[in-house]
Write a structure and sequence with these properties.
By secondary structure, the protein is of the alpha/beta class. The protein is built from eleven helices and 18 strands. It binds zinc ion (ZN) (2 copies).
Length: about 425
């Protein structure tokens, strides 16, 4: 493997991390870029960088079909337009952050202490943090309670509102599931606050060591490869493929796996996409584990510069159909600005695409609990302001096939747009 290849992979991953720093301000950002370029050039010339740096559970990692040539890899490759991605990471968009307070609901701990009538309830806390109650089991997804999605307390994307419930107010949580190690999904302070809880942590391969270093007992950690599962009481929890990347502010990107989750109860089934681009495996997830009563699918923080790292709204709706979901809750929006689009654009575009696809979407406020099999009118209300947004026709997000920018999945906009198999880059 060439040094140039390694350097380009590192830069690509770093650009994805860099999008987390979009709010750091114009003065600091160029310094950060210069630092990234300098460190990359140093590392690419360094013999040590060429050695495999498999970290935790090296035997399990080496045995994984996803671990190839010294790092985890997507089954279908990934494309990032690096110059455009750097530009996008630095630029903003009109209304990319809320101009007035987001009308959140303070989640009522007393309500959470009572089982939902239907047996299935979801509470969205903004971004990809949710509480799922499925057949009596409580699961937290990608919990982030910190002020910023960043390794640095005073720098990086800042949340738009305080947590709608304190971590200490939760009833007993059975499992925390974490899709990957990016800062907006794996939050050190939140994990440390759970040191003395009793829950399991179910994470993709390679992430357990970090949790242990943060004080989580090894017996509480379950690491899984794609298509592997574990039990939480009567609930089966499987990790399923996703098309993304991993890495924190450290030169070793893609040394921990990323994934989505299928949560399979006796009565109800839920799919959580984690962060992902479109992939052929969506259909297989539906065939193996569907139909799902609810799908939490990432719908925000997209850009045409990183078409394989995030689905974008239309492909989120397509994914909901492919995994065979009855109801979609769009997540990965509504808390942080990590990409240059209006903050309300993900949900607007999801609703437009869902109308075409005849898919049910629930749109709770942050903090609001919904029983998706018996939705009430307030569960589908427009609680966000009406702002200008860019439509799928103007700026389509279309994943590549095998990471080749000239070969794309078919666009998933409404039929008014001619179907194209390939979109010129
Ligand atoms: Zn991510
Ligand atoms: Zn993310």
């Amino acid at each position: 493997m060439s040094q140039r290849y390694l350097g380009s992979q590192y830069l690509q991953a770093t650009v994805m991390q860099f999008s987390l720093f979009a709010e750091m301000g114009r003065r600091a950002a160029p310094i950060f870029i210069a630092g990234v370029l300098l460190i990359s050039s140093m590392l690419c010339g360094c013999q040590a960088w060429r050695a495999s740096t498999a970290g935790d559970r090296p035997a399990a990692i080496a045995a994984s079909p996803e671990w190839r040539d010294g790092r985890f890899r997507n089954a279908e490759g990934s494309h990032t337009d690096l110059p455009k991605a750097l530009l996008r990471a630095l630029s903003g968009a009109p209304d990319d952050v809320p101009a007035s307070p987001v009308p959140v609901v303070m989640t009522d701990p007393a309500m959470l202490a009572m089982a939902p009538d239907s047996g299935l309830r979801v509470t969205w806390f903004g971004h990809s943090s949710t509480l799922l109650e499925i057949d009596g089991i409580r699961i937290l997804t990608d919990p982030i309670w910190s002020e910023r999605a960043s390794p640095i307390g005073w720098l990086g994307p800042r949340r738009w509102y305080a947590p709608v419930i304190a971590l200490t107010q939760f009833p007993r949580i059975d499992a925390v599931i974490i899709s990957h190690d990016h800062y907006d999904h794996l939050d050190q302070a939140t994990i440390i606050a759970m040191r003395h809880w009793t829950n399991l942590f179910i994470v993709p391969l390679g992430m357990g060591g970090r949790l242990e270093r943060w004080g989580i007992a090894r017996t509480r950690i379950v690491e899984l490869d794609w298509w592997q599962s574990t039990q939480v009481g009567a609930l089966a929890v499987a990790i399923v493929p996703a098309r993304h990347s991993s890495g924190r502010l450290d030169p070793r990107s893609d040394h921990t796996l990323w994934g989505g989750f299928a949560l399979l109860g006796a009565r109800y089934r839920v799919y959580f996409s984690g962060d992902t681009g479109l992939q052929h495996a969506m259909t297989e997830i539906g065939e193996r584990y569907g139909p799902f009563d609810l799908a939490l699918i990432e719908s925000g923080q997209y850009s045409e510069a990183w078409p394989d790292a995030h689905l974008g709204p239309e492909q989120a709706v397509l994914t909901a159909k492919q995994v065979n979901a009855r109801v979609l809750l769009p997540v990965h929006w509504g808390l942080f600005k990590l990409a240059p689009h209006a903050w309300t654009e993900p949900v607007e575009r999801v609703l437009a695409a869902a109308r075409c696809a005849d898919l049910k979407v629930i749109t709770p406020r942050p903090g609001q609990s919904v029983e998706p099999t018996v939705p009430r009118p307030e569960d589908v209300q427009r609680w966000w302001p009406t702002l200008r947004w860019t439509s799928a026709n103007e700026k389509p997000i279309v994943a590549t096939i095998n990471g080749s920018p000239a070969q794309r999945f078919a666009p998933t906009t409404c039929p008014v747009v001619p179907t194209r198999e390939a979109v010129p880059d």
